[in-house]
Amino acid sequence: MEVKVIGAGLAGSEAAWQLANRGISVVLYEMKPKKMTPAHHSPDFAELVCSNSFRGDRLENAVGLLKEELRRCGSLILECAEKTRVEAGGCLAVDRGGFSRMVTEKIRSHPNIQVIEEEVTRIPQGPVIIATGPLTSDALSQAIGEYFGQTEYLHFFDAAAPLVTAESIDMELAWWQSRYDRGTPDYINCAMDKEQYEAFVRELASAQEAEVHGFEDKNVFEGCMPVEVMARRGMDTLRYGPLKPVGLIDPKTGREPYAVVQLRQDNAAKSVYNLVGFQTHLKFGEQKRVFSMIPALRDAEFVRYGVMHRNTFLQSPKLLDRYYADRRDPMVAFAGQMTGVEGYVESTASGYLAAVAMAAKVQGRQPPDFPKITAIGALGAYISDESIGHFQPMNVNFSIISPLERRVRKKAEKNLAIANRSLEWIDALTAKGI
Fold it and tell me: How far apart (Å, rounded) are the C-alpha atoms in residues 61 and 53?
């Protein structure tokens, strides 16, 4: 039996790998490099369009739990992320280019995977997993809409942060430290005093934006809120958001700064850093002008400016089951951000679950049970919950995972207990050979 996978992003690459490792022949379709979108820069698979961070790595954090579940389930994406990891304190961040190259090499060298570089413009007959992401081509978007009887998807906008060269950062005005000194000092911290910060916010709030068709502040996904949108919400919004100084001490003064911009390593060579939380859709010239007001970045060399793009997603609760399959045809499944999961790890999890379920179906078995006590299962339950009235993209969080049956007062202890319960279930599943 052959399964088609459409799209070689995080979800599609994970899906193809899981199917192939279960002895199933996979035909993986990817339109790059023949056709690229404005947000893509590389011909490699699993390209990280926005940040290079897979976020927190502690089990008391829901995304940390989700990553550990995927590790124990043999995730390709998590394996490659660990092998291309760069220093980022308590976060899992990767060498952007090295990560995508490794995924590409593993996929292309798998004997059960055939890669076809062409755009798919219609929904093929199942078994198929469609994982073309929020940047699905116009032709396939129209075909998916026609398939479901919808002319339009829901949509929101998200943005990417700019990158600067390490050598252009003024380290006389910056210092190395991770917040609360957790782990190693992996972040470059750029302080601003009250006067510098307020001047920066005023210029940021009034800076010229690039035109993005259909863009309005209310349509921005909160997890990728452009920094200029936050600036317009109030003078102190950024100081309580990505520029919060809490847990950081400027060694020159011995005090907590008024505001801090953090820079995170973006490649293994430590030659490029990204501005953490600085997603933006300002015009490129405005990005250079305004972000150079940060004292340590006054001479910054920008190797990539921030960009914004439109993300589209399905009204999944009405259309998909908890395995990301079409309720009408279980041999047609979807995966990735187009299903309404938000984030790299969440997209990977959707690709994983869609694939192991599809593998079971084509091999005549029941799909494995991932209940809501697991983070993987909770995401599948969220996107298929027909009781949701206003469906919006969702990052994994403990509120969508089944609560404990006993009361635990301290939040960290409660979250860790939820995580341990989940991992016991995952270990039992993997012991059965899912």
Answer: 15
The Cα–Cα gap between 31 and 42 comes to 12
Q: What is the C-alpha separation between 149 and 147, in angstroms, rounded? A: 6
Query: Is the Cβ–Cβ distance between 261 and 190 less than 8 Å?
Result: yes
Quick one: pLDDT at residue 149? 85
CA dihedral 285, 222, 245, 416 (to 10 degrees): -140
CATH code for the domain in which residue 268 is found: 2.40.30
Residue 284 backbone phi and psi in degrees, to 5: -60, -45
The pLDDT of residue 156 is 67
Q: Which of 17 and 180 is assigned the larger pLDDT?
A: 17
Quickly list H helices, 135-258: 138-148, 194-206, 227-232
Q: Round to whole Å and give the CA distance between 398 and 288.
A: 38
User: Do residue 15 and residue 93 come from a single domain?
Assistant: yes
Range of the domain at 213: 163-308
Co-location of 233 and 328 in the same domain? no
Strands 308-313 and 332-334 turn out to be unpaired
Beta strands in 78-187 (DSSP E): 85-86, 91-94, 113-116, 128-130, 154-159, 163-165, 174-176
CA distances from 73 to 14, 19, 28, 383 (A): 11, 13, 21, 21
* Residues 6+ away with beta carbon under 8 Å from 364: none
Q: Quick one: average pLDDT of 218-228? A: 68
Residues 89, 146, single domain; the answer is yes
Strand, coil or helix: 424? helix
* Global pTM value: 0.77
Residue 286 pLDDT: 95
190 in Cβ contact with 173 (< 8 Å): yes
- For 129-166, the pLDDT digits (tens) are 999 987 788 889 889 988 998 755 666 666 778 999 99
Q: Kindly give the residue spans of alpha helices, DSSP state H, lying in 44-186.
A: 62-72, 76-83, 96-109, 138-148
